[in-house]
Design brief:
Blueprint lengths: L2 H7 L10 H14 L2 E2 L1 H4 L8 H10 L6 H15 L2 E9 L1 H4 L7 E7 L3 E4 L11 E2 L3 E5 L2 E7 L4 E5 L8 E5 L5 H13 L4 H4 L2 E6 L2 E6 L2 E5 L3 E5 L3 H12 L10 H12 L11
Antiparallel strand pairs: 1-10, 2-3, 2-9, 3-4, 4-5, 6-7, 7-8, 8-9, 10-11, 11-12, 12-13
Length: about 280
């Protein structure tokens, strides 16, 4: 990896050392400077789990990515600095859907004097690394919680106002085949929410911005929601709020509008973010 280019991409200045101070700074700057986005899936462009491909897309082309790319890139950079990183096959919605979803989320554990979760790929996940211990913690204006389950499993409980309510991971679940299988399914199957919905998210300071289809939401001390009116407004929001200069995203507008109508019908779309 050209580590210097990655550090420039996230706005990191100074010496990067394998310590907690550096880990916190890199994690926060990645979360704030690089948006979580699944627009490649919307364009039907294949997405791999290769950190080399993620570097080209995110650092060189200045795009964002989803968990396999975001955490894949972060993990690679941390290893280049000298951190001990473990890659786990996590499961978003395992609480309700069971083990069949394990592998739909890549989770990183970083071992220092204690173990920390590093996760910039959950969309509205932690801004900074989280100590692997039970209990509540502040995440910007969010309140989240870690719960230890049976058989080595842990559950990350998201803030009630966030997106997915939880994901599970196990320190012994490092199955690359599961990660690969779910990475392919999530970007190709008609039942995948990543195929159905265009989603872009980003932390901006302590507040969280999300754009699900036409619905733009800001979660800070208060919650605000608005509807993007047209393709030009969509492209403008991507650039101004999510740091994505992507004029071609306007081509997705008819698909975004069709999904919006299918989801809301006669409901008030400003009541809740697009599902």
């Amino acid at each position: 990896m050209d580590l210097e280019k990655y550090l420039q991409r996230i706005g990191f200045v100074g010496t990067a050392s394998p310590d907690l101070f550096t880990l916190k700074r890199i994690h926060r700057r990645h979360a704030e400077h690089i948006p979580y986005e699944n627009l490649a899936v919307q364009f039907e462009t294949p997405v791999t789990r290769s950190p080399v491909d993620a570097f080209e897309k995110i650092v060189i082309k200045r795009r964002g990515g989803w968990c396999y790319e975001m955490n894949g890139l972060l993990g690679w950079a941390l290893e280049e600095i000298g951190f001990n990183v473990r890659r786990l096959a996590g499961g978003v919605h395992r609480e309700s859907l069971g083990d069949e979803v394990v592998g739909n989320h890549l989770v990183l554990l970083v071992d220092l004097d204690r173990t920390y979760i590093a996760d910039v790929g959950f969309g509205d996940g932690p801004i900074e690394p989280v100590l692997l211990e039970e209990g509540q913690f502040s995440n910007g204006h969010f309140r989240c919680r870690l719960e230890q389950l049976d058989s080595g499993w842990w559950r990350y409980h998201n803030d009630a106002r966030g997106g997915a309510p939880s994901y599970d991971f196990n320190e012994n679940m490092t199955d690359e085949a599961l990660l690969e299988r779910l990475c392919i399914w999530l970007q190709t199957h008609e039942d995948s929410s990543f195929v159905q919905n265009a989603v872009v998210q980003r932390w901006r300071g302590g507040e969280h911005l999300s754009l699900r289809g036409r619905v733009l939401q800001t979660l800070g001390e208060e919650k605000t929601t608005e509807i993007i009116s047209d393709a030009d407004g969509y492209v403008e929001a991507l650039k101004d709020l999510f740091l994505l200069d992507l004029p071609s995203a306007g081509d997705l507008w008819p698909k975004i509008c069709e999904r919006h109508e299918a989801v809301f019908n006669d409901e008030n779309p400003t009541a809740e973010a697009a599902r």
